[in-house]
Importin-13 (Ciona intestinalis), 951 residues
Amino acid sequence: APDFTCENIEKALHELYYNPSMSCKDTAQKWLMKAQRSPQAWQFAWKLLEEGKSTEVQHFGASSLASKISGAWKDVGEDDVEVLKDKLFEQLFRFAVSLDKKIILTRLCVAFSAFVFNCANQQLWINAIHDVIERVKEETKVILSNDQRCLILLEILTVLPEECHSANTEKYKKGNMMHVLISGFSQVIVLLNSISYQNNSVQIKNRVIKCLSSWVTLGTPLNECEELLITILGGIHQTELFDAAVDCLLNTFCSPRLHDYPNTIKKLVPLVLSLHPIFTEAVGNENSDMILGLTKVVCSLAENHTKFIIDSISDHNGGWGLICFVMDCLVLPLQYPTSENSSPISFTFWYSLQDEIQGLQGNENITMHQQLSNVYFQLVTHLLTKAKYPQDNSHNEWTADEKEQHRIYRIDISDTLMYLLEMLHTDVLHFIMQQLHAAMEQSAASTEHWHDIETCLFGIHSIVETLTETNAQLDCLQSLVNIIPKIHVNSLQLADTLLYTIGSLTEWLRNHPENLQILMSIVLPYLNNNELSLSTVLTLRRLTSECCEHLTPFTPSILQQIGTLLIKGVLRNNEETWLMQSAGYLLSVLPQAECLKYLQSLLTLNFHQLEALSKDTQSIPTKNSIIHILDLLAHLFCTLDRRQEDENGEILTTEEHPVVIVLRQLTPIIKNILEHWVSDISIMEAFCNLYDKSIRNLISGFSPLLAPLCEMLTTILKIYPHTSVLDLAQQIVLVFGADVVHKKTVSMLISAIVQVVLPIYGKGVIKDHPDIGHSFLRLLSYTSRKQSELFKLAVSANNQFNIVDVFHCASITLGMSDSESAKVGSSFFVDVLSLYSSDINIQKATSKLGRDLVALVLHGVGGNAPRTHIDNYADILQALCRHNNNDFSKWLHELAVNSTILPAEVSQTRKEYFCKQLLQSSKSKKRCRDVVKDFTLVCRGLHGTEYVAGY
């Protein structure tokens, strides 16, 4: 590799910025990162900052300087500190006079911040803020104008708190940084006030605001900057200062420290309220940027200080004024999202205010409810108004992005209405119903006025979705059902909302089934409307799911309509699958003979299609059709549940389940499909999904098909070990693993899986297919944890399941570089080792491979595995220590203390201490993890560095 010289660095930077080849850029970037970390960076960084160098070169020099000061401070002796400080100031002053080098100045300020904080941690520069201000004021070596002195001071004083806030370092170091900054804050405020009053430059005023913004983020005493905040609020109308002022005020109002200064809040609130004329003017001019900024300011102040609002609720210049201003931020006479994009910001305030009210006790709570209930009812009206589609139907001309934004906006409004139920209780439903009655009367005069009806229905279904069983007996819901047939539907939006409203009534309809007939007569015709098919299918699924036992009179006609639609093929694939779920619910309540008759009618076409497809030559259309039909059947079978329970909750099995009958008929066709498509992942996933959903639904009812299914799975595995098959095997273990009748069948399936997967590990192919290893180990891990007797039976079955070989495979997966492999491998060892005391095979395997496992884990802990794996490794060590303490103790000392597995830089004393801590933490998972995490940092040379924070 080239030496780290200035010339080579400049060449590498040229490659990075100007070579079109991505591989060349990548190589150059990696080399430059090594250069920054090298000891030579202390020398070349200064040279790269010299006059005449390009901006890219100088920026790299400044970044290298920041990197070294931050990460290699140990290289700086105490005698070198003052020299380094002077050199930094020299560069800061030099770049302060270059207006086109702002980016370099900022990077130098980052380096300077790192210098200040390192000095603070060694108590070498306690009065840093004072000294910096004085040094810049008194600088004579470089000729600086007053504006230049201001700008360099503001840049340094802006970056310092920013770097402190974002520093990823230990708490005590962060505390030292904060102490240095907070102790100098009063001087910063004096300086900022002075600059603000004495200088009329917009650029400098902007920098003053940004500087204050970075300080308030730290949690500095906000009462000290009252005067400056008042000045900023007074100048917010200036376009050039608006954005910076908004950001600064947001940081101020969101600061948790502001709660400590109630008098400051009292002074600021009237000033914020005085912005209302500016807000009104911005709304009149449709100035969306200014509306957005002011809305953020008002709502952040109100949302974060709801206690102040409650305490001053009657004050028009206090709490009441803020509530009214936030309401005005919502009720903009502009259309979202085409004319305004700020009203959603106001939503969360009402959540916060409601929480504050609900937190009041006794009479205070009652009084506040009485005072604000009218406000909340007004809020309901305004939310419904904002949710309304444009009266001129201009939404039909919106772009796809605008329609999506509006859809999400309505969801947010719906969520807000749901939340209001806690405040207003069911009165809110009566309130919206009154508006619906009024809208119905208005629409009688003109059918074009559907918008008000639609938005009332939207509000109603938002509320009804949240109703509990205790308040579901509302008579207004019966009134709603009586109104629904009278609604003249003349728009897609109204029809869509009407369908969702009917869907939201399903729980209520279960207790009032007499209303189902009229509502079903409204829903079913929309199945033939392509634009409304999605909402219709979803509504039908809800109705059939909750009310299927009451739909028996209509079941034949509904099933006939479903069959007709499936034959026509006019629906989208996902709509057909949801329709099949509805069919499953309906078939579940029919007598057995009727159920089979309608099932046969419904599936005849699918059977014929699937049989024909099984004989077709392989092609993408054939494949997609097979997958879709299998998916349809899976969704039908997952809802077709005819099980009945006796008074003790036991399943009554008097007749064979229709799903079993259908699957038995399908088996020859499925076998034929598997012969042709056994290597296709997608078809195998669809096949396994069909049986997985059937097993989940039928549970023990699937028993007659278990043996044939296991036989099919074994055949498939011998050809290709699909992960979907391994995952299905886990479901089989869950349902039938403890069943005495089927235990042998299931154990033979597991043994067959082991015989298939072990050679894949043996050939080294597993590294190309780690997902097979993951599913394999998850299956065995789950079996050992949930069905330990089955696991032992599988291990001992015909000597085909060698646990030593499986241990070896798990070690291979554990040693892979990805996080999932570490997680799965760790879970396997932890679960299997829990059987150590009761299984001689596991004892033998541990005795034979345990030392190698400890070596693998210590190798990773020592720095040869990502740090994200360390918790998984720690769990293995704890399991070994807990279940096989004697051998583990011996292996640990041999490998950790007396071998070269761990880095030579780690002292023997530290290794021995690690072993002692680990052996003492066998009963605490958290303690064991902490010990291993701490030790891995030592091994990687990271202990005590900034990388420890958050780890």
The two ends are 34 Å apart (CA to CA). The mean pLDDT is 91.
